């Protein structure tokens, strides 16, 4: 997901959600999400 702040900066959100019970297992929010950040969240 992504959004834009009032100042014009873009932020990105990475959500890990369990489809069975709709529980959020993790969330990362940053101005950029490189592959290392995504892998760290998935581990």
Q: Topology of this structure?
A:
Blueprint: E1 2-4, E2 10-18, E3 23-30, H1 35-42
Antiparallel strand pairs: 1-2, 2-3
Can you summarize this structure?
With 43 residues, this protein is an alpha+beta fold. It contains one helix and three strands, in the order βββα.
Structure characterization notes:
By secondary structure, the chain is α+β, with helices and mostly antiparallel strands. The chain has 1 helix and 3 strands, in the order E-E-E-H. It has a 3-stranded antiparallel β-sheet, with helices on one face. Strand 1 (2-4) and strand 2 form a beta hairpin. 0% of the residues are buried.
Order of helical and strand elements: EEEH
Give the strand tally: 3
Q: Main beta sheet: strand number and arrangement?
A: 3 strands, antiparallel
Structural class: alpha+beta
Sheet with the most strands: spatial strand order: 1-2-3
First-residue to last-residue Cα separation? 20 Å
Structural Rg: 12 Å
Instruction: Count helical runs.
Output: 1
* Strand coverage percent: over 45%
| Mean residue pLDDT | 91
Q: Shape from CA axes?
A: flat
Instruction: Outline the low-pLDDT stretches.
Output: none
Please bin the fraction of helical residues.
10-25%
